[in-house]
Amino acid sequence: MATLTDRNGMNGCAATSPPPRTLVLGIGNVLWADEGFGVRAVERLHEAWELPAGVTLMDGGTQGLYLLHHVEACEALIVFDAVDYGLAPGEMKLVEDDEVPAFLGVKKMSLHQTGFQEVIATARLKGWEPRRMLLIGVQPEELEDYGGGLRPIVAARLDEAVTCAIDELRRLGHVPRRRRGSRPPEPLSAPAISRESYEAGRPSAEEACRVGDARFLTLLPGEKG
Amino acid sequence: MVVQTPNGFTLDNSGRRVVVDPVTRIEGHMRCEVNLDENNVIRNAVSTGTMWRGLEVILKGRDPRDAWAFTERICGVCTGTHALTSVRAVEDALGITIPENANSIRNLMQLALEIHDHVVHFYHLHALDWVNPINALKADPKATSELQQAVSPSHPLSSPGYFRDVQNRLKKFVESGQLGLFKNGYWTNPAYKLPPEADLMAVTHYLEALDLQKEIVKIHTIFGGKNPHPNWLVGGVPCPINVDGTGAVGAINMERLNLVKSIIDMTMEFNRNVYIPDVKAIGSFYKSWLYGGGLSSRACLAYGDIPERANDFSAENLHLPRGAIINGKLDEVHDVDLRDPEQVREYVDHSWYEYDQPGVSLHPWEGETRPRYELGPNAKGTKTNIIELDEGGKYSWIKAPRWKGHAMEVGPLARYIVGYAKGHERIREQVDGFLSDLDLPFEAIFSTLGRTAARALESLYCCELQLHFYDKLVTNIRNGDTTTANVEKWDPSTWPKEAKGVGQTEAPRGALGHWIVIKDGKIENYQCVVPTTWNGSPRDPAGNIGAFEASLMNTPVERAEEPVEILRTIHSFDPCLACSTHVLSPDGEELARVKVR
User: Fold this and answer.
1) What are the tens digits of pLDDT across the range B227-249?
2) By CB count within 10 A, which of A158, B30, B486, B521 is most buried?
3) Contact (CB<8Å) A121/B181
4) From the candidates B53, B170, B210, which should be mutated to test the interface with A, based on the most A CB atoms within 10 A?
5) Beta bridge partners of A177
6) pLDDT value at residue B195
7) Which residue in chain B is spatially nearest to A190 when comparing CA positions?
8) Which domain range does residue A132 map to?
9) What is the rounded average pLDDT of the residues B480-499?
10) pLDDT digit string, tens, across residues A81-107
11) The 3-state secondary structure of B502-525, one letter per residue
């Protein structure tokens, strides 16, 4: 279980002041296997939890600058993402506050990461000073599978990632409530793109070729560089 | 070796080779290789997309009514345009007509996306090819204020104190070391020609543009229910209209419509008083730098968009013009038919795909995406670490689309040249006015600057069109028509056993088409030919070079190791590689990895 080692004095915050306006954002491209982790995490959170006013849950996809005003409008930012920490696949790691943008840019491994790092930098240039940033990241196993879903080892972290976010929301002073048996009134994203129908509806490899770009990715079986 | 291309360029690959990889700032990767002669002039250009594509691998067998939700995820920039193109393709295949209100609302959303993309592209992604933010720190705020008042007297934000504040913020930001936005720039390169005051004015407007862009996207939230990822619907739009309503979730009422109007007004003001004056001001310092025209003076293609009446895609019903110009003949504009098997066809001889036979091309309805990754015999390096491409062989993950065999440029400049050639009144007025203000001849439009100017002019024209469709929508609602969707053929049992259709739009960066084949209620084939496939295309079997390649030809480079001129010209196309190709390069940390050999 990933845990936070240093709370930076945030513990006392909730009791004395109103909870900060909080954005819980999932970023990534669902079309690229484990790249979709962030989006799937907010989807899972939305299914299981009802969030109070003051917390916005958002499927940010790869929207880059389109997310700028949502980021600027929050005082606390919680981001789910697939991050290359150089750890074993499926390992989860939390990164806090000023370290967050750096982690999004250490080694860009997805189309959106520089985009989102830039969103944070741009918000900062415009004077945004968040009280809190938390990145809940998981080390992906497979990205180079266009049309694929989460790998089991990554999908297995979804609930834990959601728990981390809920814990953080509580620390910030919010009161999330578990949905008891009821489905959310509205899906977070188009139903066709939900994890279940996206993964179940995938055409087979025989129907539609899945070979990727050998130059940058894994070579085809039996092929040499 | 010196080669003459059929489309009019003399290629000489004997000089030293410069590699720029990657050249896009966002969303995907492309790489350019050029050969410079002894005077540092580009004499051969090779552009390659370094990612693999093929959306059909995801959509085959799925419900056509859902395709928009997948195509919306291809790319983080053209989201809504792909969704619109997708629902149009399905409607075309199944013979579904949409109500007038849906047409007006879709136009308002598509125009909002055009304007948003144009403004953000210029200030956030392209301005740094012309503007030097570090130089802005040297500006005198008072002189900047005077400059502002001279170029745009009616813009209210122009006091010396205002510019001083921005300069201080910029200074603080640069000193704090979070230079993420401006790192890897070539800030001492003489290719930057603006005085510090113009640099400071442009940086200031960059911040204003960021404030504006968040207002523009509210139009998507209002009509699409949410943003990011607004909802779309085959048969219309998903938002009901209830003018007397007081805030039913998702319904369009008068209060929401008034908000739309205020956003349109605000956007129009910015385009008129900031964006266009900025491009003119910057242009006035780069008047002697009229390189980068490439194919624009010879071969331009536009599918057209923004239908006045619903369901009518004939050229005369489209506000953004449709047409093809070939062989540089502006007095003859050909009509374009995306269903004609002889018009749009894709080659793969120089792309990392294969068809059954070499030298053939396929119409997108018959399109295939079978990868075949191999380097040409003269390539240097290995398949996992290419040092130098061999453009004589296969060299790109982008296919080579051709219109009746011609390599074409698409995008705002192509649209404006087609519109100008067809006598489009508003376009003529805008282009003539811009050129006369800068005291430039008509031919100057065929340039990198012309491409950047056309985008700015089009952005204002799109605001004007928004106002038109806003009025149309409100009038129609007042007359009692609140229909927004046609669900007659929603049920797949009403569909033919087999059907095929095509959806077309003008995406911000150019002509976009989706071709769909539906069989037994499911998607059988789905092919996208995106704008950057046209502009970024590699050579075809006849040897014609693509628009990016052509645009770099004969451009002098100040410093080979800092090829800002290459970036400036390629960025002027607003390239978006995520959808023309896929996958990723190993590291995107650097803005550009430049290798000089």
Assistant:
1) 888 899 999 999 888 877 655 55
2) B30
3) yes
4) B210
5) A50
6) 93
7) B69
8) 16-182
9) 95
10) 988 888 899 999 999 998 887 666 433
11) EEEEEECCEEEEEEEEEECCEEEE
Distance CA A65, CA B215 (A): 13
A109 near B CB under 8 A? yes
Short-list B410, B418, B416, CA closest to B453: B416
Cα–Cα distance between B97 and B488 in angstroms, integer? Answer: 9
Q: Domain coordinates of chain B in residue numbers? A: 2-353+361-596
Question: Looking at residue B409, what DSSP letter applies?
Answer: B
Share of chain A above pLDDT 70, in %: 78
Measured distance CA(B80)–CA(B262) in Å, rounded: 22
Cis peptide before B133 (omega within 30 of 0): no
Residues of A in contact with B51 (CB under 8 A): 213
B70/A31 CB distance under 8 A: yes
Q: Give the mutation candidate from B115, B206, B229 for the A interface (greatest A CB count, under 10 A).
A: B229
CA distance A32 to chain B (A): 8
Asked if the structure places residue A49 within a domain, the reply is: yes
Which residues from chain A sit within 8 angstroms of residue B79, using beta carbons?
61, 63, 66
Q: Dihedral (C-alpha) B582, B587, B589, B593: value to the nearest 10 degrees?
A: -100
Residue B588 has pLDDT above 90, yes or no: no
Give the total number of structural domains in chain A.
Answer: 1
Tell me whether A101 touches chain B (CB under 8 Å).
yes
Hey, which residues does B307 pair with through a beta bridge?
A: B318
- CB-CB under 8 Å, A203 with B73: no
Strand partners, B21: B593
> Rounded distance, CA B421 to CA B256, Å?
39
pLDDT value for B593: 42
Q: Is residue A34 part of a domain?
A: yes
CATH assignment, B2-353+361-596 = 1.10.645.10
Residue B549, classed as helix, strand or coil, is helix
Q: Which candidate from B66, B369, B583 shows the least CB-CB separation from A216?
A: B583
Query: What's the token pair of residue A202?
Result: 């995938």
> In the structure encoding, which two tokens stand for residue B383, read together?
């398949």
Residue A68 lies in a domain: yes
- Give chain A positions within 8 Å (CB) of B26: 64, 111, 114-115, 118
Count of positions (residues) in chain B: 597
DSSP letter, residue B44? E
Q: Within a domain: residue A7?
A: no
In angstroms, the CA B460 to CA B150 distance is: 20
Cα–Cα distance for residue pair B528/B534, rounded to 1 Å: 11
Residues in chain A closer than 8 A to B27 (CB atoms): 62, 64, 111, 115
Q: What is the DSSP string of chain A?
A: ----S--TTGGGHHHHSPPPPEEEEEES-TTBGGGGHHHHHHHHHHHHEE--TTEEEEEEET-GGGGHHHHHT-SEEEEEEE---SS-TT-EEEEETTHHHHHHHSS--STTHHHHHHHHHHHHHTT---SEEEEEEE--S----BTB---HHHHTTHHHHHHHHHHHHHHTT---EE--SPPPSS-SS-GGGSHHHHHHTPPPTTTS-----TTTSPPPTT---
pTM of the model: 0.90
Read off the CATH number of the domain in which A82 is found: 3.40.50.1450
Question: B545 with B11: CB under 8 angstroms?
Answer: yes
Average confidence score pLDDT of chain B: 89
A203–B58 C-beta distance less than 8 A: yes
**A-chain residues within 8 Å CB-CB of B584?**
109-111, 143, 216
Per CB-CB distance under 8 Å, the chain B contacts of A113 are 588
